[in-house]
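Batch manifest, entry 17 of 40.
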Amino acid sequence: MHTLFLREMVLKFNYFIIYYVLVINFIYFLQLILAAFKLNDYIRKIRYSDYQKYKVSDNMLPISILVPAYNEEETIVENIKSLLALNYPKFEVIVINDGSKDNTLKKVIEAFDLVKVNQPVRYRIKTNKIKGIYRNIELPQLILVDKENGGKADALNAGINIANFPVITSIDADSILESDSLVRVIMPFIEDKKTIAVGGIVRIANGSTIQRGRVVNIDLPQSRLAMFQVVEYLRAFLTGRIGWDSINALLIVSGAFGAFRKDAVIEVGGYARNTIGEDMELVVKLHEYFLRNKRPYRIKFIPDPVCWTQAPERIKDLRGQRRRWQIGLMDSLFKHKRMFFNPRYKQIGMIGVPYFWLFEMIGPVIEFLGYILIPLAYFLGLLNVKYFILFLVASILYGVLLSLGAILLEEYTFNKYPSLKQLLKLSFYGVLENFGYRQMTTLFRIEGIVRFREMKHSWGEIKRKGFQEK
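Output type: structure tokens
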């Protein structure tokens, strides 16, 4: 009786796996097609747009750049230098030292000759205590905020309280912006007054050469682990984010680089302090608030305001990052579960949120169960080996096709990796990631699911190293 039940359960699950894989691969393919058309339109648009004139225009919206920093002594100075060198008419850089235990605060003060000043703070969003504000009269656009530790979200909220300008952009302390990134990311706010948030593309800096806080030579990483992430990021941003943007259902603006209308962020209470996925949580919260109150708005993704960031090169760090991403995703979806298949929230409630529930949150569990139950089906004599192998090969080839599609989109559009050697290396890792790397990251996400309650308030740390200067 028990064996019969087990056989029936395994058989039904195998059929479910087939349909599940077919559906998600169809969604990925559809995103790839949508992204191709969207990118083509965008490239044609910028080809006839003179961005140079906007770099000196007095009509550009001023921007406050927020840089939350916790134990970032290895990269923080280079990061600030790159930000101060940006081509933009009017901006300020607000570095928020969130109670670092290393020499982050000391290094910034010494590098830019900052002194403590008496500056009043209007707490429009509640945060932990600000211990001091540091400035240099010769660098009026740089502000250093020293505060008690409260996490990344609390640091960003403190930066919002200090910010003087109507648009804020957050960037991780281990990241570097290209010189004209601000010009490009601000354009949607100017073109459409309903825009409240814009996400930019994030690329992997490992292997590239940095001089005075600027990327002067783009190259691929030497680390195999980082190489897999280059392919991942291309696929996630050039197909995933653009695909969601094309149907106005973008749920994630990367914490590494995103811009927001300050008044909108304050209106929804700022970044949520009780989550480690504060970037997704803010975007979903904005969607829910504006849709619930029937106010017109747009949340956009732009594929070329490039932010370069360091990818983890140790399995331990990658594990912590993917576990954290999964926990942040779950936390945000649970908090906004009322949006799930709720027509009140339009395409966000009917398409975006259900996708993230069914494929991003539950997907790792289904994939993991497949690794267990498919071999079990073989031992129970329920698996047609011939058809299973054909299905497995087709699935792998489909995954490879999607990765290569993202790589080809990159080569056709922005061509950051122009050499044939770089293209072949990217393509090789696009194939190789299906044999071990993908399964490893699935296990990390499973750990995030299992340890959700235990770790949903624990940010964790990634070991940083200085950017490669030459």
